[in-house]
């Protein structure tokens, strides 16, 4: 992808260049596309390309394994895992329809797929990000009911409730990111985009209104809700654990009822710990992106392209991490995956195996 002809500086405003805005240079590549110059040597580009491809493959393999495990093993086909399954679907879509195309632009500094698909790609990227966030909210709600209100859990959390929450997460995400496809997110900054974007690059810009609203409703509100939910869960879980421990110590021989109660509570706590870690990883991966997307319009879009690519890709990495967190911290999933990759998988009755 060597460049053959420079079209020169298109951003000639000295005041703008003095304010650390990247000067725009568009080059005609061997492919005939007009893109920004390559920012790294061929060696570095190849290393980054390999890292991105490996991350994408890990995303697809990990989430596909979770989807297959839930689809195959009857013990995993329980109500809470509907959210796990749906989250894995959202994450694998990131690995299939978002990360590969983003990889080529990040490495070659050129968008080879046309401006229409550029808009579609931005839509899918924002859609999956929003869907993942609201799926984590659904999981937090289920954990909250299981730990904080176990007596009414079966009444309040039904298949109908699960379907309603999933429909809200998916359809709400679609409606929320429709402005991306309609171009509303760039109203008022069209001239700026034209002066800083090469014809065959696919750069994601948002005006002040949509960047602030997007971060607020897609990140801040869900994260605040989930943080409060898990704080309540943590306090109640510790109180329940102490209460059961005292009951066990005070009962002679530790009755079977107490043992069963303790085992059930331990499973609930382990499941809560798993989704809490997933929540923490999500915040860690996406906080830099949302911080950058809110800050950029207020500093005249001076964030350099390398920083944009880094924070955006780091957010995508979250979708590759989630399935491995499930496999690493959830015993049932660990056992299911172990069976899937062993001879036991081909034995009669493996679907009903005790996990």
Automatic annotation (TrEMBL):
Gene3D superfamilies: Rhodopsin 7-helix transmembrane proteins. It is a multi-pass membrane protein. It is found in: Cell membrane; Endosome membrane. It comes from the Eukaryota. Keywords: Cell membrane, G-protein coupled receptor, Membrane, Receptor, Transducer, Transmembrane, Transmembrane helix. The keyword Transmembrane helix applies. One of its GO terms (biological process) is regulation of appetite. GO terms for cellular component: endosome membrane; plasma membrane; synapse. PROSITE patterns: G_PROTEIN_RECEP_F1_1, G_PROTEIN_RECEP_F1_2. Residues 62-326 form the G-protein coupled receptors family 1 profile domain. The chain crosses the membrane at residues 47-70, 82-102, 162-189, 209-231, 275-293, 313-333. Interacts (via C-terminus 330-346 AA) with GRK5; this interaction is promoted by 5-HT (serotonin). Belongs to the G-protein coupled receptor 1 family. This is 5-hydroxytryptamine receptor 4. It comes from Petromyzon marinus (Sea lamprey). The gene is LOC116944678.
